[in-house]
Amino acid sequence: MSTLRDPADYARYAEAFNARDYDAVFAFYTDTPRMAFFGIEITTRQQLRDFYGFLHQFVKETISVERIAVSDNLCALEGVIRIEGTDDLTREMLDQNGMEQFFPIKRGDAQEMRQYIHYHLKDGKIESVGCALV
């Protein structure tokens, strides 16, 4: 079952995310997830699929967890998100897809960002996500 109840469950989630196995990733979410980060708000699984489906055409995104705590209603982590350009992602492409606040990246370039991510849980499923950059 795809629930988040302990760090081992999150490791399975991160492994699926890093492998771009969207079906496995989305199985961890409720039917009506809410994500808010960097000015983007996602409220359906389809929006989640569209967002990552577009973005991951141009970048390889990986999560490296440094610290994690899980309770019945929260999974909180600190980690590094690495974004590596696999193809050029231009300012125009970002703007056309409602991602004006994101930065363009060229193929071969890489960015690493320290993030604090809170996954709010309902019955072990991700109900909402919020994150902050440092």
What's the gist of this structure?
The protein has 4 helices and 6 strands; from the N terminus they run ααββαββαββ. Strands 2-1-6-5-4-3 form a 6-stranded mixed sheet. It has about 130 residues and is an alpha+beta fold.
Report on this model:
- The structure is a single chain.
- This protein has a single domain, classed as Nuclear Transport Factor 2, Chain: A.
- It is globular, with a radius of gyration of 14 Å.
- 25% of the residues lie in helices and 43% in strands.
- It has 134 residues and is of the alpha+beta class.
- It contains four helices and six strands; from the N terminus they run ααββαββαββ.
- Strand 5 and strand 6 form a beta hairpin.
- Strands 2-1-6-5-4-3 form a six-stranded mixed beta sheet.
Task: Record the SSE blueprint.
Layout: H1 7-18, H2 22-26, E1 29-37, E2 40-42, H3 45-55, E3 59-70, E4 74-85, H4 91-96, E5 110-122, E6 125-133
Parallel strand pairs: 1-6
Antiparallel strand pairs: 1-2, 3-4, 4-5, 5-6
InterPro entries: NTF2-like_dom_sf, SnoaL-like
Protein name: SnoaL-like domain protein
